[in-house]
Design goal:
This protein is an alpha/beta fold. 36% of the residues lie in helices and 14% in strands. The protein contains ten helices and seven strands. Strands 1-7-6-5-4-2-3 form a seven-stranded mixed beta sheet, with helices on both faces. Strand 2, helix 5 and strand 3 form a beta-alpha-beta unit. Helix 3 runs parallel beside helix 10. It is globular. The structure holds pyridoxal-5'-phosphate.
């Protein structure tokens, strides 16, 4: 595996404002102008580089932060979200339909545990909690309904470290996605390079690092981020928990200048 340094990847991400400003300009608009209706219709069909429709879909400032986070996690793409829980819940509902199952570590952040245990069953999505270090036990819990194996790279609060390559092996060829919450170990662990399919973050914690906001992110393949933001069927677009651009700009400054 080639050497990867997340801090270099982020520092090499150079984006400028419209007057060459060292920080990119903040797009302080919910909506965008189209000079022709055709262009707008085209954007409904597929994304067009540098062209924006509505800030719940994409916004240039959110895109800058998302691109920086994709670099940090070495993922093809990313999307900044309104909170860590928004990142987790939109990812899970994008992946699971009613009747589907999740296998989750039993030691995860309390809010995620409550989402899986108390909330998702209302929509027919059930979770089996287990010790993910016991790979035989995990294997025995996999059914043809299993869509997701979920863990935290380093768990909150017990700091259990997940064996991401071994879990990725279990997911492979079974159509199961390995979703890893990397909130506790950004820059230290790169789950996608270890075989995870999707990384979620609470930016509220170490990445923003100044306890002045709530934010999150999903880092994944281009295909998955397109699914999340799809105008007709994307959980981000339709549930709407996206980040405000002014906050995206302040987190981006920390990411690019302080990490
Ligand atoms: C590991 C982990 N994931 C997710 C979350 C949820 O993040 P947020 O509070 O930004 O919604 C937290 C919050 O403490 C967390 O510790």
């Amino acid at each position: 595996m080639s050497r990867f340094d997340p801090s270099n990847a982020i520092q090499d991400f150079l984006v400028f404002g419209e007057f060459g400003d060292v920080n990119p300009s903040i797009t302080d608009s919910s909506t965008f102008t189209f000079m022709t209706p055709d262009r707008m219709e085209e954007l409904f069909d597929h994304e067009i580089e540098g062209c924006f429709l509505y800030s719940r879909h994409w916004n240039p400032t959110n895109k800058f932060l998302s691109d920086a986070l994709a670099r940090m996690e070495d993922s093809e793409a990313a999307q900044a979200k309104a909170s860590g829980m928004a990142a987790i819940s939109s990812t899970i509902v994008q992946l699971c339909d009613s009747g589907d199952e999740i296998i989750s570590s039993r030691t995860i952040y309390g809010g995620t545990y409550a989402l899986f245990k108390n909330f998702l069953p209302r929509f027919g999505i059930t979770t089996r909690f287990t010790d993910l270090a016991d790979l035989d036990r995990v294997r025995s819990l996999i059914t043809d309904k299993t869509r997701v194996i979920y863990c935290e790279s380093m768990s909150n609060p017990l700091l259990e470290v997940a064996d991401i390559p071994a879990l990725a092996d279990l997911c492979k060829d079974r159509g199961i996605k390995l979703v890893v919450d990397n909130t506790f170990s950004p820059m230290i662990l790169s789950p996608i390079r270890l075989g995870a399919d999707i990384v979620v973050h609470s930016l509220t914690k170490y990445i923003n690092g100044t306890s002045d906001c709530v934010a999150g992110a999903v880092c994944a393949s281009d295909e998955f981020i397109h699914k999340l933001t799809d105008i007709n069927s994307g959980a981000s677009m339709l549930l709407g928990a996206v980040l405000d651009s002014t906050r995206a700009a302040s987190i981006l400054k920390i990411c690019t200048h302080c990490i």
